[in-house]
Amino acid sequence: MNIPNNEKVISFFREISKIPRETCKEKQISDYLLNFANERKLEVSQDELYNIIIKKKSNIKNFNGPAVILQGHMDMVYVKAADSNHLYENGIEIIEKDGYLYGNKTTLGADNGIAVAYCLAILDSSDIKHPDLEVIITVQEEGGLVGAQILNTEAIKGKYLINLDAEEEGVVFTSCAGGIRNYVNIPTFKENVDSKTLMSINISGLKGGHSGMEIDLERGNAIKLMARLLYNLNNDDLYLCSINSIGKANAIPNNAYVTIAISNGMVENITDRINEIENVFKKELFNSDEVNIKIDQIYVESGKINVYSKDTKNKIINILMLMPNGVINKSMSIPGLVQTSINVGSLEENEDNISILSSIRSSVGSQKYNVADNIKIIAETYSVGCKFFSDYPEWEYKTESRLRNLFSDIYMEVFQKKSTFTAIHAGLECGYLDEKLNDVDIISIGPNVYEVHTINEHVSIESIKNVWVVLVELLERLSEQN
């Protein structure tokens, strides 16, 4: 088995990591891909949202078999550490350590930059035998699979689709959950009160993580923990000045901030209560996460201060307490698979409202909408706004798959061990592509990527090589079908 050097994959990954490509800001990376294809005289198209489709004819003489689609997304979740001075505009700084690639106090973007790198390495190579290739690289996957939703697939003729957005080597996804996202918008009203002591409270130290991949690990959700803290501290003499935990729908929030105003004589009591509640959280999360509650500032504000009205304060706290979060139920068909879940991912304070963003996932459509109905009831009960968007379909398992069989055979031949075929609770673009394309055989594969959507995200260099070996051999065997 003659396998081209995988260094080209890592080289392309390093190159595209220099280009900022946060979700909804993909024009620069999309233009790079467009230029890449044009420089190599490959057929390429770029749509109005910056999705890219690149086609390359087979290098097998007189090939007349079906085309193979390679697919991934170009956007990434950008998160940086609280103490990082990194500028998004500078791209990602990659650090190599102990056989892994990391970002420098930022997300790495292996999700899903590594897919782009695989595609570029194959398109750039002349010594890899392959069938006709159709490479689809989408945008706004992390924003709710938006690119895949609007993608025009009329020109796509492939009958095999290899999605490269999986995150565990040798574990092949054959179906995935669908999902829907939601905003609850709470109108806010403020008032002035007499001089108070202000306390800024920060919940931090949590691991966070991908809301599809790590939702079942019982990690703390900073927004829900802050809701519990405020609920337990709340009384008529406590005022809410500000609250924020700006994050992503599909990332478990790992920090939250709040500023409260209290009477001058309440400082010691409130501080003691915060310490007690912190100990409760630590005990609850002892086996799954770490949490710290820090009082950043205690100072007395002179004169009138602006705070949320008591009705607004209570509405914010109560809605946050009632919002469902975490695993709703697990599959009875596939052991260990989360069937339905919800992640409260972001809480953003705006001029006249507070916006709560959540992501619902389920492999059963009716259960997805049942969770949505629960949120509607909360919104209706408290007379606040509620909006659902990015409703994407699940990808259903197919009983027959030549791709599955080929991958299984190759993986056993190369590594002398079995691959695993399973479903994933996270949403993949395969759902939309399966819906849009006629009778296509799909698998989702990828190298070992850890702690995605967090500042600890890293990818195994050895695993990048292993998946490259299998991918190249898979394309070669598919090129033999005429």
TrEMBL record:
<keyword id="KW-0224">Dipeptidase</keyword>
<keyword id="KW-0378">Hydrolase</keyword>
<dbReference type="Pfam" id="PF07687">
    <property type="entry name" value="M20_dimer"/>
</dbReference>
<protein>
    <submittedName>
        <fullName>Dipeptidase D</fullName>
        <ecNumber>3.4.13.-</ecNumber>
    </submittedName>
</protein>
<dbReference type="InterPro" id="IPR001160">
    <property type="entry name" value="Peptidase_M20C"/>
</dbReference>
<feature type="domain" description="Peptidase M20 dimerisation">
    <location>
        <begin position="204"/>
        <end position="286"/>
    </location>
</feature>
<dbReference type="InterPro" id="IPR011650">
    <property type="entry name" value="Peptidase_M20_dimer"/>
</dbReference>
<dbReference type="GO" id="GO:0016805">
    <property type="term" value="F:dipeptidase activity"/>
</dbReference>
<keyword id="KW-0645">Protease</keyword>
<dbReference type="InterPro" id="IPR002933">
    <property type="entry name" value="Peptidase_M20"/>
</dbReference>
<dbReference type="Pfam" id="PF01546">
    <property type="entry name" value="Peptidase_M20"/>
</dbReference>
